[in-house]
Amino acid sequence: MSRFGPSRFPAVKNGEMACGTVWGTRNLARLAGGCTVAAGAAVLLGYAGGIRGLARPVPAGPFMVPLTAVAFVLAGASLWLLAPRPAANTPPRLAGQLLGWLVAIIGAATLAEYGTGRSVGIDLLLFPDRTRVWSIGGNPGRPALYAAVALTAVGMTLALLDLDASHGYRPARILLPATALVTVMVTLGSAYNLPVVTSPDIGLALNANAVLVILTMGLLLCRPQLPPTRVFCGHGPGALAGRRLAPLLALVLFAGILAIVASGRRMPDGGLAVAAVTMLLLLALYLVFARAGAALDKAQREREDFMHQLEARERLEALGVLAGGVAHDFNNALATILGTAALIAEDLGPGHPSQPDIERIQASAQRSADLTSQLLIFARQEPRRAEAIDVGAAIRGIEDLLRRTIGEDIDFSCQTADGLPPVILDRSDLEQMVLNLSINARHAMTDGGSLTIRVASLTLPPDATPSLPLPAGRYLHIAVADTGTGMPPEVVRHALEPFFTTKPAGQGTGLGLANAYGVVTQANGHIAIDSEPGRGTTINIYLPAATTTAADPDTSTPARTAPTGHAETILLVEDEPAVRHTVARTMTRHGYQVLEARSADEASGIFHRPAVHVDLLLTDVIMPGASGYQLAEQLHEEKPDLPVVFMSGYSTTTPPDDDTTYFIRKPFSSQELLTLVSKALGAR
Description:
Rossmann fold, five-stranded parallel beta sheet, elongated, phosphorelay sensor kinase activity, transmembrane, membrane, nucleotide-binding
């Protein structure tokens, strides 16, 4: 259920549509197939036993010829086998397709006989003597012309019912409406008693026409998700409107019959005109229904997509809040660990045997801080800043995270070439994109495999291949290749769409590739998918090279001696007792006087004491009550030149742009804090 309540139009499941009864549309289709087989078999039994009533239910009408009856038996059996939609290359599906081709061959051979005026020798294969006696017209045993047309259409529809041609096109989308159109034309001609339809060599026998209607209805019901059935049998608003307007079709048919009956006579010419007008009206109504229904269904899909996007955005926002809070608590704990370890190391002295243990504690805490920062990648909580970055270095920086994410059963390698150009991109966007692509690859390799990330430089000439819609120039090529299951072409075509996923519920949101597409597109790059079932997938990303140079990471070794103070007074505001105690001890040990406060209100009270002179405000940002920013703004009104150092474990906090304000992210080392405090005091 969405935040807007349950949808009035539930999604179609397993091909069952709103028109399905207790049995469902596919069971109704199988019933139609069984009736078709029974009707054809009854006609053959009539010929075998000389029972005219089985081959011709109306005494004055024409007989259904044996070849037509055989075709109906084959078509009904094919429909029975194909209605449940068996899997590809299974015996039921192959047998159903074979029977469909046989029906199409019978119809096509008969059409060839009419076209050439020559017999191919199939008309009198069954019951030749009785067929010659019972047949009406000049071609004993030959199916009527319209019967041949209908059988050809029915046979091809059955044979190609579930075929997906190139580019995902299904021939059945054309064949099903064509078969329905032929059936309606023949039935209208019989209902209006048009000679052009009812003459012996052209028209269908009454029982053949009835069986054709049943068979066509079964064909339409066995695949209700295809036109024209979906216009009336869907769950969407378009299908609902189609069902409500469907009586108009019956009204048109009834009006045509009334026009003929009211004339009081048979009208060869007038009847043809009425039939033509009726047919055109039916076709026009169907097209109107289909177009209006498609528009309504599109609006419904867009509404549902919007609801899904809104729900996904809310989930991501909730995840971001959770990750930010967890990171804040972790960073506070790590700040305490790092600060306390530094104090112990100073107490013990450089040559103490426990110094290596303390260094290991500090290194582990720093690695934990790095993991906390990488945790925020999942929730996109890192500050976004597009700049010239070294992609190879950025990916190597999250290599450990990638290895832990994909698991030990995946062979992972990261290959980066030398001399790579920088690209203008937000680092967190890049990390998020690579992480999402790696997770997608992991899901495609349930039994293990290998994942390779390659980063190389690429120069496109002016006559570059059309598959890369990029201008000539230098690019950075990132390839994320796996040995997983791969994707068929129809999945590749939709893989970059938001919320498109083939994974089971709970294993993916369908946003990974879509987010990658958004990041790459905003950077004026291109993303392409090279995949084939059974041969894995390679995601190729092309990013334009930047003309500026990427900033080198700061690899300088900090001075081992931390700067000391000169009895300056520091107002320390921190709501976390452990962090406040550790920072206060560190600052006191290095020559500062520290006034401690647990909140902004308490700090304001200390600041306004008559005998207190504060040289620097060192405050946390997120605290109960007023924030550190609000406290600094309040104190700056009274002392504009007061230096302020903000501390925060939240990655999204950004300090005000001011010459007197500085920012340090938790967890920090004692040396980093002391250096920044000394810098802030020296800039006064």
